[in-house]
């Protein structure tokens, strides 16, 4: 995907509405110097592989928001797992995509989009290095489609992005380091937005702390 943020967001939402709601979330979408960061979100770096299912997972962000624990974990399935099936109307659009990437987001012990079943927020992909996966971002929450309350901002990024900085309406910043699912090219970073706060802009940086993008789509 090489489209700009707003156009890409519209296409992403439309595509996953067409395939039966297996998109990453039912929330707001966009594509997406050493700054001083407050409220830095810790990142887990330990991968977990289950031999029987060949699932590889990676925690891309975790911490506490509004007094509740939160986490974002990416799960990579090299083959479509048992019990998962693409809706018939999506078979043509997803032809050749025999792997699955799931974004598991939890706030206060409750998984976001759990009402959609075990495969909510899972996306069919073409193996461990699908180039179409990078570039999307979204806000997710437990109610109001991620527009209020405690929310999680998750950005899927390319190899050039080392970290992102989420600038908030109260002047604070959240720095989140991008993490890769081992054995794949899937990278993401995540930050938690507290109730009553909003995003003014999101910046991404490379490993030399040079700013790569400046996104004000979330205003």
Please give the alpha-carbon distance between the first and last residues. 23 Å
- Estimate the global geometry from the Cα principal axes: globular
Specify the oligomeric state: single chain
Count of discrete alpha- or pi-helical segments spanning 4 or more residues: 1
Describe this structure in words.
The protein has 219 residues and is mainly beta. It is 6% helix and 40% strand. It has one helix and 15 strands, in the order αβββββββββββββββ. Strands 2, 3, 4, 5, 6 and 7 form a six-stranded antiparallel sheet that branches. It starts with a helix and ends with a strand. The model is unreliable at 1-52 (pLDDT under 50).
Write the layout of secondary structure elements.
Elements: H1 5-18, E1 28-31, E2 48-50, E3 55-65, E4 68-77, E5 99-107, E6 110-111, E7 122-125, E8 136-141, E9 151-157, E10 163-168, E11 173-177, E12 179-180, E13 187-193, E14 199-205, E15 211-215
Antiparallel strand pairs: 1-8, 2-3, 3-4, 4-5, 5-6, 5-7, 8-9, 9-13, 10-11, 10-14, 12-13, 14-15
Could you name the key traits of this structure?
single chain; 219 residues; mainly beta; six-stranded antiparallel beta sheet; five-stranded antiparallel beta sheet; 1 helix; 6% helix; disordered N terminus
Quick structural overview:
With 219 residues, the protein is mainly beta. 6% of the residues lie in helices and 40% in strands.
């Amino acid at each position: 995907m090489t489209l700009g943020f707003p156009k890409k967001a519209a296409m992403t939402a439309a595509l996953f509405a067409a395939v039966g709601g297996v998109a990453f979330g039912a929330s707001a979408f966009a594509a997406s110097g050493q700054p001083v960061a407050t409220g830095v979100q810790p990142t887990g770096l330990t991968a977990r592989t289950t031999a029987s299912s060949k699932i590889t997972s990676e925690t891309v962000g975790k911490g506490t928001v509004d007094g509740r624990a939160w986490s974002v974990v990416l799960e990579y399935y090299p083959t479509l797992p048992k019990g998962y099936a693409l809706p018939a109307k999506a078979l043509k659009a997803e032809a050749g995509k025999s792997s699955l990437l799931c974004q598991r987001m939890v706030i206060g012990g409750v998984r976001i989009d759990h009402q959609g079943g075990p495969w909510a927020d899972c996306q069919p992909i073409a193996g461990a290095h699908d180039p179409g996966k990078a570039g999307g971002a979204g806000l997710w929450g437990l109610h109001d489609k991620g527009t209020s309350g405690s929310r999680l901002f998750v950005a899927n990024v390319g190899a050039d992005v080392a970290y992102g900085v989420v600038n908030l309406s109260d002047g604070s910043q959240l720095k989140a380091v991008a993490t890769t699912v081992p054995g794949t090219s899937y990278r993401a970073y995540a930050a938690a937005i507290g109730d009553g706060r909003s995003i003014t802009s999101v910046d991404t940086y490379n490993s030399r702390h040079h700013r790569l993008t400046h996104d004000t789509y979330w205003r």
